[in-house]
Amino acid sequence: MTAVPIPSQRPRPAAGTFLWGSASAAYQCEGAWNEDGKGLSSWDVFCHSEANDVNPVTGDVAADHYHRYEEDIALIAAGNQNAYRFSIAWSRILPDGTGKVNEKGIDFYNRVIDACLRHGVEPLVTLYHYDLPQTLFERGGWENRTTADAFAAYAEICFRAFGDRVRTWLTINEPGYETFCSYGAGNYPPNVQDLGRRWRAMYHLLLGSAMAIATFRDQGFEGRIGLVSDSYPIETLRDDADYRDAARFADLFQNRCVNDVAVRGEFPAEFIAKLVQDGVDRSYALDGDEALFAAGVVDVLGVNVYDRMLVKPYLEGPTELRNNNTGDGGGPVVKVSGWFQADEDPDTVKNAWGMEIYPRAIYDLLLNLKALYPSTPVIITENGIGYRDVVADGQIDDQYRIDFLAGFVEWMKKAMDEGCDVQGYMVWSSTDVYSWINGYEKRYGLIHVDFDDEQKRTPKASYHWYRELLTKEGVNR
Ligand code: BG6
Description:
It is a single chain. The protein has 477 residues and is α/β, with parallel strands linked by helices. The protein has a single domain (19-236, 248-306, 351-472), classed as TIM Barrel (Alpha-Beta Barrel). It contains 15 helices and 15 strands. The strands form four sheets. The chain has an eight-stranded parallel beta barrel with strand order 1-2-3-4-5-7-12-13, surrounded by six helices. A three-stranded mixed β-sheet has the order 6-8-11, covered by helices on one side. A hairpin with a 5-residue loop joins strand 14 and strand 15 (456-459). 52% of the residues are buried. Residues 25, 28, 173-174, 177, 230, 304, 382, 386, 428, 435-436, 438, 442 line the site of 6-O-phosphono-beta-D-glucopyranose (BG6).
């Protein structure tokens, strides 16, 4: 494998340029968990507690991006990427979630943004990616409506500090998947299995996002703003009325409970009816909220796409959705009674964590999104595959990742040819990172990180492949 040349200073991509990049998230890559005035987050505390019993490791150091961001951004640029999506750790900016600003936190993200711009890399900034300040978490976290207010206030601080340079903002990463893990699987803090609490927390996440977006517009900040949703094409192995019903329920449960709110500013009526039928206490929905949601619709929808979701009709007993966190089938089973059953195609290839290798998923998803939300552009904010990469002679020959990404890119382009307005594509992840409760074995990066040897970086074969692809795409020529 060839050495990677470090490019000289490059101009920032012109507005409207298709963004080809890669992504990370603060807790997963930064480390420096208690440095420079940072407050504790829910993940710092969880990882240091006995509740983290599946893969008891922490993000204390992770990829050490806090100290090595210059090297990482230089590598991203040298890889011909013109964009980098990263998240801000709320507890670095506001150690207690509200109140006094930690200037050293502001300084850090100024340095990251400036490094991006120096290298001609467009920064895509996510304001919240699972790591809630512990002070807010202890007050009920997202189940407490005041967390939504606190988020909007924190977002405004970030708009003011970084808005002169950041043109693409993403409020919240995956209100669906985060709350599913926190309150469905129970494998993310607060580690409970109670879907009623899930719907409450999700409501407040969406409310916080809407309020931040309204602030962004009211205060006249420049640029575009969106939310990041984990979205799936819902598919069935049979086509009859019962299977179609199951697919519709799964679409409400997985996708539309977030996407309709983000794009249309309202929850689907059928979704609310289903919650009422399930006996969910919706006292969290207050008079006047409809106007808040309507005022906070996105300019662009960020979509994390990894897989399709296969479902079949719900018959009886608990629906079992397995969360395989160990790569050998271990992990919690989620009970979702009454909506749909998870199905499985025995003939598709899967990775060790049970994820189907199914590149067509992105095409089906993009067409579904175009049909539902024809005027809203999409950025693919994450796409990638977890694997136990092997280092041989100092190199990582991850052909499986190249095949996976090449398939998704090809299907994405087909969807674009058919009129889907896609404005960017980010590989998950820029470097290897902490894979939440899956620990460090499950790697996604284009760049290998040696977690046992001072976080040394080695670009993988997939990094070089992506670089060539982007040259052909005319990026940074
Ligand atoms: C997305 C998250 O859901 O999937 C990332 O936004 C995450 O933070 C990625 O790392 C892959 O999931 P996992 O659980 O395998 O790390």
